[in-house]
Design goal:
By secondary structure, the protein is an alpha/beta fold. It folds into 2 domains: 14-225 and 310-357, TIM Barrel (Alpha-Beta Barrel); 365-546. It has 17 helices and 14 strands. It has helices at residues 18-23, 54-76, 91-101, 123-139, 173-190, 210-217, 275-280, 285-288, 297-300, 327-341, 347-357, 365-383, 407-415, 419-442, 448-484, 489-512, 541-546; strands at residues 28-29, 79-80, 83-84, 88-90, 145-148, 161-163, 195-199, 226-231, 253-259, 306-312, 395-396, 399-400, 524-528, 532-536. The strands form 5 sheets. It has a 6-stranded parallel β-sheet with strand order 3-5-7-8-9-10. The termini are far apart.
């Protein structure tokens, strides 16, 4: 899958090219196409979306474009399972039937476009869902199936539609999931012999709690065309979270979701090799998990319900960094896809195969290997920590939060006497990035632009994580001073001076290096209104550092 930034121009990526996807070893695509917005609902009520209206013109134009894309994928021999927001419907449908689709206590909110959440328990919701599926496959008969997307329903790119997940929250979601699954199984898998991938993501604890997962799935009869899509992580695509224990349990087939371009870790603007950790287990599992727990795809690959891997090859998050070269995302995607084809092959064998595919010599492959493995260690120590825990979303997209989101962690490390250890960890990350930058400069492939990108992306990572290190010195030592009244002024001032130099170096890199991704902002990630994402200067690392400039 290539996931587009919401409301922005669709992502430019080789992974949108079915021929390239086939070459990379994938047998299917989950395109971000909005097929649910290419149907008219004439089966529900003829002309409910009026002929000649802007709403209907948009829907029909969308359908024509999608059918052309479907033909292109068919020529390449790639199956299609579009990302599908079930129960996103035209505004005309919602306006007429919305009050029959929502829970009784919310009927008075239906007239507001800010409220558009149907309820799967309502008969009209079920009826519209069945019609939606029927029209999708009548309009796009060559689709091989659908990938259900629920929990994060965004309408930025669908100006004439409203809708949301029809499931309730908490324990109430268990019967809702069962109800929904039975309808989808019947309509997609049984009646039409199409494949349904049912994502467990954002269905509350259904996504990671084994008891809840089984409470739902054990109530639904398995079918060859019904496959559950489960993230390999206990939660979102973070490090320092456990391997998902709902994998390899129950009676249903499962495909594992793997993100190759993580928005919480730089979006591959710099090296960040996660494929080895996914296949063999991440280093932090040594202290996060019990030895008997499954910790990697190698641990579950022999399960009779393991059905394969689904990569988010590009995309995730909302905004930047925006790439000009997708080499590091391609590296993760290649290793994951080739491993899924033949799970007896080792990660290192596949890594070497990718390096040769990209033109690396036998002398340079060990250097690329060290860069890649070091990147995984450096991201763990720079973005995350091995000492306690803190909000893993303190960096996301192109934003770096300040001390407000880190205060509880700072209090913990002060109380536990871990200040020096935590700052040393950040310096260890920077030292690793310096080594990565050094080795990147030694690699010489026949592709001059790739050589330039290796150096640029390595420098990008070093600058980013040195900014984090210097920012932590200022914020953590400043926090101690706020409590004691005594500040380590020389250390703080020295760190601020280097922090300022690094931001100038980063801006210059973006300006002068043709392959450089867009850089970060010293602002906090923020949302206003209906998911209007922006950088908030008041909550960012910049404001937190500025606080201590005059001590």
């Amino acid at each position: 899958m290539v996931y587009n930034n919401l409301g922005l121009t669709p992502r430019v990526s080789e992974f949108n090219n079915p021929k390239y996807v086939k070459e990379m070893g994938f047998n299917g695509m989950t395109p971000h196409w909005y097929v649910q917005c290419g149907i008219t609902y004439d089966l529900l009520d003829k002309g409910i979306v009026p002929e000649g209206s802007e709403e209907r013109k948009w829907i029909e134009t969308n359908a024509v474009k999608l059918n052309q894309k479907i033909k292109e994928a068919q020529k390449a021999g790639v199956k299609l399972y579009p990302f599908t927001d079930f129960l996103v419907v035209p505004k005309s449908v919602w306006k007429k039937y919305g009050k029959q689709m929502v829970a009784d206590e919310f009927i008075d909110k239906v007239d507001s476009e800010n409220y558009h959440k149907p309820d799967i328990r309502k008969e009209m919701t079920k009826k519209i869902l069945r019609i939606q599926i029927a029209e999708i496959f009548e309009t796009f008969p060559d689709l091989d199936g659908l990938m259900l997307r629920f929990g994060e329903t965004y309408l930025h790119d669908t100006p004439h539609h409203l809708g949301n997940s029809p499931l309730r929250k908490g324990q109430k979601s268990i019967p809702d999931n069962i109800e929904l699954l039975k309808i989808l199984r019947e309509e997609v898998c049984v009646k039409r012999n199409k494949t349904l991938f049912y994502r467990t993501w954002v269905h509350d604890i259904f996504q990671y709690d084994p008891a809840t997962y089984l409470a739902v799935t054990n109530q639904v009869e398995p079918h060859p065309n019904l496959i559950f899509a489960v993230k390999h992580t206990h939660g979102d695509f973070f490090r320092t979270v456990r391997f998902n224990q709902t994998l390899a349990i129950g009676n249903h087939q499962q495909v594992v979701e793997v993100q190759c371009q993580r928005e919480y870790e730089g979006k591959q603007a710099h090296p960040n090799y996660i494929a080895k950790g996914v296949i063999e287990g991440f280093e932090e599992y040594d202290y996060l998990m019990e030895p008997e727990q499954t910790q990697s795809l190698n641990d579950i690959k022999d399960s009779n319900i393991f059905a394969g891997v689904w990569t988010w090859s590009r995309g995730g998050g909302w905004l930047g960094p925006h790439l000009k070269n997708e080499f590091w995302a391609e590296q993760n995607a290649y290793v994951m896809s080739k491993w899924a084809q033949n799970t007896s092959r080792s990660e290192e064998e596949l890594f070497t195969e990718f390096a040769r595919y990209k033109g690396f010599s036998d002398d340079d492959i060990p250097k690329l290997r060290e860069i890649s493995l070091l990147s995984a260690k450096a991201v763990l120590r720079g973005k995350y920590t091995r000492y306690g825990s803190y909000s893993v979303v303190w960096t996301r997209d192109q934003y770096i939060h300040g001390s407000g989101m880190l205060k509880k962690h700072f209090d913990y490390v002060i109380k536990e006497g871990l200040v020096e250890a935590v700052l040393a960890e950040k310096k260890e990350s920077v030292d690793m990035w310096k080594r990565i930058e050094e080795m990147a400069g030694e690699i010489k492939t026949k592709d001059v632009s790739l050589n330039e990108y290796l150096v640029t992306s390595a420098k990008y990572g070093r600058i980013k994580y040195e900014i984090i290190e210097k920012g932590w010195i200022v914020m953590l030592l400043g926090h101690i001073g706020d409590q004691t009244g005594e500040y380590e002024k020389n250390k703080i001032r020295e760190a601020i001076g280097r922090y300022d130099e690094l931001w100038e170096e980063w801006k210059e890199l973006e300006k002068t290096s043709p392959s450089c991704a867009t850089i970060y902002e010293p602002n906090g990630f923020a949302i206003r209104g209906h998911l209007d994402i922006y950088g908030n200067p008041e909550t960012g690392i910049g404001a937190s550092v500025d606080k201590y400039r005059k001590i």
